[in-house]
Specification:
This protein is α+β, with helices and mostly antiparallel strands and 82 residues long. The protein has a single domain (2-79), classed as Ribosomal protein L7/L12, C-terminal domain/Adaptor protein ClpS (Ribosomal Protein L30, Chain: A). The chain has three helices and three strands; from the N terminus they run E-H-H-E-H-E. It has a three-stranded antiparallel β-sheet with strand order 2-1-3. The longest helix is centred in the C-terminal third of the chain and has 18 residues, at 52-69.
């Protein structure tokens, strides 16, 4: 399984990050806000844990949405656990 990570930047709005978390990662609004604040405060945050194929697809969707809105939001994945 792989963790999908969102990376903080100085341009992507907090509202857009919450929108991504609710629409792409299906997080409830309150949880999406908490994840967004974690990304904002710590520079990175976990959007979810998925199989490799699902993680890659979600990253692609996030990058496509961000490009369409002119945001540099970056999303990556890493293996979960040791």
């Amino acid at each position: 399984m792989y963790r999908v990570l969102l990376h903080n930047d100085d341009y992507t709005t907090m509202d857009f990050v919450v929108q991504v978390l609710t629409s792409v990662f299906r997080k409830p609004s309150a949880e999406a806000v908490l994840i967004m604040l974690n990304v904002h405060e710590n520079g990175i945050g976990v959007a979810g844990v998925y199989t490799a194929e699902v993680a890659e697809t979600k990253i692609h969707i996030v990058h496509q949405m961000a490009r369409e809105k002119g945001f540099p939001l970056r999303c990556s994945m890493e293996p979960e656990g040791p």
